[in-house]
Design brief:
The complex is a heterodimer of chains A (about 270) and B (about 180).
Chain A (H helix, E strand, L loop, with lengths): L4 H13 L5 H13 L1 H4 L1 H15 L7 H14 L12 H12 L17 H10 L8 H10 L8 E2 L3 H8 L19 E9 L2 E10 L2 E9 L6 E8 L2 E8 L2 E7 L3 H12 L2
Antiparallel strand pairs in A: 1-2, 2-3, 3-4, 4-7, 5-6, 6-7
Helix pairs in contact in A: 1-2, 1-4
Chain B lengths: L5 H7 L4 H12 L2 H18 L8 H22 L5 H6 L1 H4 L10 H8 L4 H7 L3 H12 L4 H8 L3 H17 L8
Helix pairs in contact in B: 2-3, 2-4, 2-9, 3-4, 4-10, 9-11, 10-11
Classes of the chains: A alpha+beta (about 270), B mainly alpha (about 180).
The structure holds zinc ion.
Chain lengths: ~270, ~180
């Protein structure tokens, strides 16, 4: 049935898909969807659209010329230091370069969900409604799932030459496999996971007592995306695109070291 | 001595230049104008930085970028100097009156060649719907942050997102007419 309540509930369904509801509100939405054929397909439609936009719509990063122009205008606006005016402040310069290369906006900023939106509700939502590409929930959920005993690894190997062939025949793409043992991020194994409506490669790395999951799958984007950092349900997530592959690194490791890990991947 | 706050400004605000440019580019539909908008917005942000009380620097900057973009669109529409301060104060009121590049056949033609259909559909949305969807899907802002950037209540953000999505779903993402 499609009643008067549907118009209002549809904004709630949208808010649910956007990760904005409290558990109580999400439960209300869920109850309505169970009983209303008119609204039942709405979450899937909204998520498909969201996935398409994130996958296909262009993200325009600031051109290098714009970075340069702004830095020079800011320098012009500030009084020059009395001495060493010809020398750029190396700390600032390095920091700017680092920021330019790494964390882009923290997605969803300081409030990943509406206040009180519990992880359990998040996971329930993921189970109920497999989310579209580009949404962090199922990546974090996949990581949490993998931390359950016995679920971490399908293949245990610290040898990238063992892990890479293991994916052959199990995936319709060949994920890049690299080991960074020398840099302090040893590869410990891999598994298959199911995210964004498809089977993906999950590479598992160890950093001290922390596990890093790196999810890899083919990406339909038009261009390489620089890393975007996010904090989601208490986990740090960094995602980027390169050479037609989407990468999502997720861990409870601190953001700085996770960024170090990503830089290793970004290096040739 | 450097100007107090410049180093802080660079550390806190400049990381969000990509977000600033992406928003400006989607709002004004033109790379050159978008660069001008971001430059002006950053300089404006620098002059206001003394009043920035911490918190979400990205949303703070995006709000300035958004308002600067509206000012620029209005100025372009009038072919001259706009009343910057008036529009700065009331970007929302001007939202429906400013020249929207989506309505410009030349701009539409220029972008039509090799751009994906979805990009076109998104670019063709009315400005106030497009900005909400770009902030949500490409910048991944929360409703609260979108409300802060656009200066409209959360309820309005929700209904604009809904209308934007309805338009895109009616204007099919996969195949179909454009
Ligand atoms: Zn209904």
């Amino acid at each position: 049935m499609t009643g008067d309540g549907c118009a209002e509930i549809r904004l709630m369904v949208q808010a649910d898909v956007d990760g904005e509801l409290t558990p109580a509100e999400a439960a209300r939405v869920s109850a309505h969807l169970d009983g209303c054929a008119g609204c039942a397909s709405l979450p899937a439609q909204l998520m498909a659209l969201s996935g398409s936009i994130r996958r296909e719509a262009l993200y325009y990063p600031a051109p290098d010329a714009l970075h340069a122009a702004i830095r020079s205008r800011i320098a012009g606006a500030a009084p020059q230091p009395a001495e060493g005016a010809a020398m750029p402040d190396m700390n600032q310069y390095t920091a700017a370069r680092w920021w330019k290369r790494l964390p882009r906006p923290t997605w969803r900023g300081s409030a990943p969900f509406g206040a009180g939106f519990a992880l359990a509700a998040c996971l329930a939502l993921v189970v109920m409604l497999p989310r579209g590409d580009g949404l962090p929930d199922d990546v974090v959920a996949g990581h949490i799932r993998a931390l359950q005993p016995g679920h971490l690894l399908d293949v245990t190997s610290t040898d990238q030459h063992t892990v890479k062939p293991w994916f052959d025949g199990r995936l319709d793409f060949a994920p890049p496999v690299r080991d960074f043992k020398a840099e302090g991020f040893p590869l410990t194994g891999a598994r298959l996971d199911y995210l964004a409506g498809r089977t993906v490669a999950a590479l598992v790395y160890q950093r001290r007592q922390h596990v890093i999951d790196l999810f890899v799958w083919p990406d339909g984007r038009h261009f390489d995306r620089s890393p975007v950092v996010g904090d989601h349900s208490g986990y740090n997530v960094l995602r980027w695109s390169r050479d037609g592959m989407a990468f999502w690194a997720v861990s409870d490791l601190n953001a700085q070291e996770l960024a170090d890990f990503v830089r290793l991947w970004q290096a040739e | 001595m450097t100007l107090p706050g410049v180093a802080d400004f660079e550390r806190v605000v400049l990381p969000h230049l990509d977000a600033a440019y992406n928003l400006a580019r989607w709002l004004v539909g033109d790379a050159t104008l978008a660069q001008d908008v971001v430059q002006d917005a950053v300089m404006r942000a620098l002059s206001y930085f003394g009043s920035f009380r911490g918190g979400d620097a990205r949303a703070w900057l995006l709000r300035i970028v958004r308002n600067t973009a509206y000012t620029a669109l209005a100025a372009r529409q009038r072919g001259g100097t706009a009343s910057l301060d008036a529009m700065w104060r009331d970007g929302e009121a001007t939202a429906l009156q400013v020249h929207d590049p989506a309505d410009d056949p030349e701009a539409a033609l220029a972008r039509s060649e090799n751009v994906a259909q979805l990009d076109q559909a998104l670019a063709a949305l009315p400005l106030e719907l497009r900005e909400c969807l770009v902030l949500r899907e490409l910048q991944e802002l929360s409703y609260k942050e979108i409300s802060h950037v656009t200066g409209v209540p959360i309820g309005t953000v929700m209904s604009r997102l809904w209308r934007a999505r309805q338009l895109l779903m009616r204007n099919p993402v996969e195949g179909g007419e454009t």
